[in-house]
Amino acid sequence: MAAAFGRYHTAVVRGIPDSVRYDALIQAEQRDYVDVEKARQEHAAYVQALRDLGLKIVELPGAEDLPDCPFVEDCAVVCNGTALVTRPGHSSRRGEVHAVKKVLEEDLGLEVVHMVEDEATMDGGDVLFTGKEFFVGLSNRTNEAGARILAETFPDYSVTTVPIARGLHLKCFCTMAAPDVMAVGEGPEAQRAWQEIRARGDHKYAVLNIPDDGAANCMFVNGTIMHCAADEFPKSAKTFTSARLEYPRVQVPNKELAKVDGSLTCLSLLI
Ligand SMILES: NC(=O)NCCC[C@H](N)C(=O)O
Ligand SMILES: [Zn+2]
User: Fold this and answer.
1) What 3-state DSSP class applies to 54?
2) Structure confidence at residue 2 as a pLDDT band (50, 70, 90)
3) Is residue 5, in this structure, part of any structural domain at all?
4) Model pLDDT, residue 1
5) 203 catalytically annotated
6) How far apart, in Å, are the Cα atoms of 259 and each of 28, 61, 135, 156?
7) How far away, in angstroms, is 58 Cα from ligand 2 center?
8) pLDDT tens digits for 193-240?
9) How far apart are CA 24 and CA 184, in angstroms?
10) Residue from 169, 174, 218, 227 carrying the catalytic annotation
11) How many CA atoms lie less than 13 Å away from 176 in the CB half-sphere?
12) Any bridge partners for residue 60, and if so which?
């Protein structure tokens, strides 16, 4: 199973609605307005990077009444042919799941489980799959009931919860950079999460400490590491370069959607 980690054939992505500029959810107190045209250009570069890595792209149209809809990762957890369609933690995002569920079930033929329980919530951004087990951030968006349903849906893997006191999602600052290698931000919340993972997980991982928390959100896709662009995170990009990872790397831009807390993993569901 470990050898197949990070192998995908299809990516589901979703277009960016104009409403992302004024209405997308933000953590910051003050809004830094997204330049929608630039965001679409960056999104296109991201999608092209996935295509170049051999993925077939399924693009859902953006929906104006769903300003956060490009962040499809939050709508489902896909593993070994099964998709758990989530119940997103913020009520403004609940409507996003219908189009995602439809495409996963009808077009891609996945076995779909839908999290419908009233008290359960989950954003896929809190779900870190290592190829061997799951870690689930317990955040403002994801709760114990959500984590329990994940464990029931994927009984072959252990699920360990990680409390997230500050920040949006677990994967905002902690992701898999390569098989058995976790990229972890150097900020206090990221390091706390890593200590939990290290102490309570079932498996051992090497750590790659990344100077900027936001740049610790990277992706390992078909043998290549996709990470932040050097002009956005110069120090962190350098860390990826000098880390002597045994895999090729590509840099992808994400300046605009980062203003509404979007990171690289958020923008696709990989199958
Ligand atoms: N998986 C992710 O990290 N998703 C980012 C979601 C950003 C969106 N503005 C939100 O607050 O829900
Ligand atoms: Zn995130």
Assistant:
1) coil
2) very low
3) no
4) 44
5) no
6) 9, 21, 26, 37
7) 21
8) 999 999 999 999 999 999 999 999 999 999 999 999 999 999 999 999
9) 26
10) 169
11) 24
12) 14
Binding region for substrate: 25, 68, 73-74, 93, 141, 260
For residue 152 the two structure tokens come to: 């029931």
Number of domains in the chain: 1
Torsion 14-19-20-26 (CA) sign = negative
Predicted confidence (pLDDT) at residue 244 exceeds the cutoff of 90: no
Of the candidates 213, 218, 219, 215, the one whose C-alpha atom is nearest the C-alpha of residue 232 is: 215
pLDDT tens digit sequence for 12-28 = 999 999 999 999 999 99
Residue 247 domain-assigned (yes or no): yes
Average pLDDT, the chain: 97
Does some domain include residue 141? yes
For the CA of 126, the nearest atom of ligand 1: 1
The predicted structure's pLDDT at residue 4 = 82
Site of tokens 């994400």: 254
CATH number at residue 222: 3.75.10.10
Q: 262 C-alpha to center of ligand 1: Å?
A: 5
In sequence order, which residues have a C-beta less than 8 Å from that of residue 23 and are 6 or more positions away?
A: 67
| C-alpha 43 to ligand 1 mean position (Å) | 15
Environment class of residue 22 by beta-carbon count within 10 Å: exposed (0-12), middle (13-18) or buried (19+)?
Answer: exposed
Is 144 within the bounds of a domain?
Answer: yes
Residue 180, domain extent: 10-270
- What is the rounded CA–CA span in Å between residue 34 and residue 21? 5
- CA dist 180 and 245 (Å) reads 12
Q: Please identify, by atom number, the ligand 1 atom nearest to the C-alpha of residue 217.
A: 3
ipTM score for this prediction: 0.96
Q: CA of 179: how far to CAs of 5, 18, 104, 169, 173, in Å? A: 6, 37, 26, 21, 17
